[in-house]
Amino acid sequence: MGIEPTGAAAASAREEPRLHRVQCMSPAGLHAMAYAEWGDPANPNVLVCVHGLTRLGRDFDRLARAMTDRYRVICPDVVGRGRSDWLRNPAFYAVPQYVSDMVTLIARLDVERVDWVGTSMGGLIGIALAGQPESPIRQLVINDVGPALGAAAIARIGSYVGQPVSFAGLEEAVDYVSMTAAPFGLKTREDWRELVAPTLRREGDRFVFHYDPTIAMPFKSVTPEAAAAGEAAMWALYDRIAARTLLVRGAQSDLLTAETAAAMVTRGPRPLRVEVDGVGHAPTFMPADQISIVRDFLLAGLTSPPDSGDRA
pLDDT of 132-147, one tens digit each? Predict the structure, then answer.
């Protein structure tokens, strides 16, 4: 269980989510995926928000609260993270398994169409699902990721994913995360506390991150040949996307390079593009101006026909 936020972060919690689990299947057997649900459960407009590699669904608390007037918002913990089960075989911690789990989740929600916000890994899952024939994704927000991944970012992320770190308490964890994830660009310590607190769980008299350390195994075992094949497959999926799409990039991102972003706006869904100044990988959608980027795009799509262009 994560450490609960305090102070203004707790005071701003006008609504708390309903917490659920859905049973999914991998080649190694059954597992449960947890998800938080915000807003009216009868609202036919559903927004699915999917987090990055070592994160969890509570990353989207502020965005979810800002969208519940128009959406039923669903924020899953991808398997191996947060309240979700850990896989028996870590080899399946990969996009195909995550897409399968999301299809199961959408079936549980009993809706034919969803809108999607995906940060980093969540964006790759969104691309892979949106590129399928008859995809349920109607509108897609890809946050700071693309079919080609920056080598410098992969090396940086690989240096800390799955490392056996632990903390005496929240403040020590905030010190660590605000350094390793400095490109998130958060401005206040209170923001960092809000982001970090749900990601911790107690282990004895220490706190550790709320994810299975073996999620790093597939990430770190990719060969150059496999990486090239995976990039080609992801471009092929991207080129098949029919959803109305927004591409968000941190202006200093080392994962979604400027070159890849430029290529993305000329092919596939030809997304609108927005860059967030003062941020690297990846925008958190916690500041009000970042929330507005997502909200304005999605609400325009609820009332207007598809549009395209480049807002960089």
Answer: 999 999 999 999 999 9
